[in-house]
DNA sequence: GCAAAAGTGTTCGGCGTACACCCATGA
DNA sequence: TCATGGGTGTACGCCGAACACTTTTGC
């Protein structure tokens, strides 16, 4: 157990942690512009006690990296991510008092995710206005935001922040919140329509002005490249060849 | 069962390794088309003994990740890379007999790099035709190649494979070797000229037909984004807060 | 009817591609 | 003078940006 080794980790021991930067969207009130938020946990133990930090924990020797990331996510938010990707391995000598290599993941949650009722020491923060965090976590979040903004430009990642049914305005507002600038509704419509990732439904969202058509995400299309090919066993291509 | 010459590591111990995929270019003879090559080392110890593997080693507890990558590179090739970037952290439970998390880097060497005379158990391999490698190293090289091909499309990374002075044809051949397709010399010229990354010199390469102007790389421009902003010590935000 | 968002049409400029063409050198 | 690669000019097509315009609802 962890507490045991805490007394005196030998000088040559390197420990492996897994943390996750979890992005979601929140609006102050319905109709208000959305902003990017992420959950942080308050540290209750020795290094940086009292500061907010990324959710994470020690990697178990029998646990896959991605499983560890999902676990920390479930433990803090109680929800499953719509997207999960490795971000970077942070391992600078000076980033903690003893030597820790953190494999950091980043994840997306669909808009409207709620923290469990009994969540203690967990809270949502506006990604653009973070307090000083524990360790190098400000640095890590900045990099995750950079990756998010980057990836939104060449992938369909933004869908990971939306519920199953959404309007084109919903989707556009996701892009606007991430990129922090306004987009032309007319051009935006054509771009996503031509991308082949949206399935129009017969349903409309009513309530204000002209009703907007609801769309569904085309599950056949991957949200984005998530890193090295997963599961080298049976892909569609290999199945067809056999 | 695996025979360990060392005392068996406890079941809950996770060890951290650093490996590097090092790309360079080689031509069978001057003027011949270039191909992407990488150095591999033959394993002389127990797991996968005799198989070729990526150069690497255990991370020292007092050693920065990137330093460890550079060290393995120097130990095998005796040369300094022109580019070095973290690729991915591979940590699947089944990838080794005991639990190893490998922080893998990828690097570029300028064309013409020579292995040291006394190099034993090290050899260059054509990246497109690798034998079965130790562990998941075939998988890792494939991913590094994907990243290389990708990055060549939106960054100036290809310069990292060339010497200080080069012709536009040299540079074009780098792209052609990486992308494995021919490029229009006329259009290629305009694209790189407009990118502002090349400094024309007054020198020409003579020897065959019309002499070609030699160019130099503009050092003011970074080859590419290499990951999280380096030097995490004093960020603007933390300075202001203190 | 009016405001406002949904949705369509049109124009313009940049940029990548294709390709014709001229230039300079070695043999 | 010819072959060959260096280097220039030009036309086409696509796509993103800008923006005018029509449609459909709530009030």
UniProtKB/TrEMBL annotation, chains A, B:
CDD domains to which the protein is assigned, alphabetical: NUDIX_NadM_like
Record domain Nudix hydrolase: where: 13-149
Stored InterPro entries: NUDIX_hydrolase-like_dom_sf, NUDIX_hydrolase_dom, WH-like_DNA-bd_sf, WH_DNA-bd_sf, WHD_NrtR
Superkingdom in the source lineage: Bacteria
PANTHER family recorded: ADP-RIBOSE PYROPHOSPHATASE (PTHR43736), SLR1690 PROTEIN (PTHR43736:SF4)
Protein name: ADP-ribose pyrophosphatase
Organism encoding this protein: Microbacterium dextranolyticum
